[in-house]
Amino acid sequence: MFAEEEAALLLEEAAGDERVLAEMVRRRESGEPLEYVVGWAELAGVRVAVEPGVFVPRNRSELLVEEAVAALRGIGSQDAVALDLCCGAGAVGAAIAEAVPGIELHASDIDAGAVELSARNLTRFGAAVHQGDLFEALPDELRGRIDLIAANSPYVPSRELGLMPREARLYEPPWALDG
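^ thats the sequence. predicted structure below, dont judge the formating
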C-alpha cells in the first residue's frame, strides 16, 4: 500500500476525530501493523477483524484462496467440507466461503485468541471453529469427510525470524510465524 493510500485509510477510519487519528498515527509510527491499528484486514475482497496477538492476513495468501476455490468448484461444492487449518483470524476460510457459498466450513488454530477472533469472523458463514494442535483440534465426525484443507501454517525458519520485517517480528505472535 502506498503512503497516500494508508493516510487516506487512517483518515477514513478516524471519521473526523482528531484524537483518534493522532493515536492511530502514533501507533503506526511506532511500527505497529496497519491492520492492528485499523482493526481489520482484507483478503480476496473479504474484510475480517484483526487484533494484536493474531497473525495478520497477507495478500500473498490470495493465491491459496484462488486454488482452494477452484478445487472446491471442481469437485462440486454443494456438500463440500473445507478446513482452514492454522486459521489465525479466519481470513482464508472467510474468503473461500464468500466465493463458494454453501460449503461446510471448519477452522482450527492452536491459539485461543486466534480461535476466538476467527469464530467472530466466520459466524456469518456458519463455520465451526476448533482449538487445538493441527488435526487434533477436529471432532472425530470430520474424519474422512474433509474435501479441502487450506493451510497458511507458520512458515518462517526459526533461524530467520530475526530477518522478518519489524512489523511482523515485533508485533505478531512468534508461534504464528515460526515454522
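The chain has seven helices and six strands.
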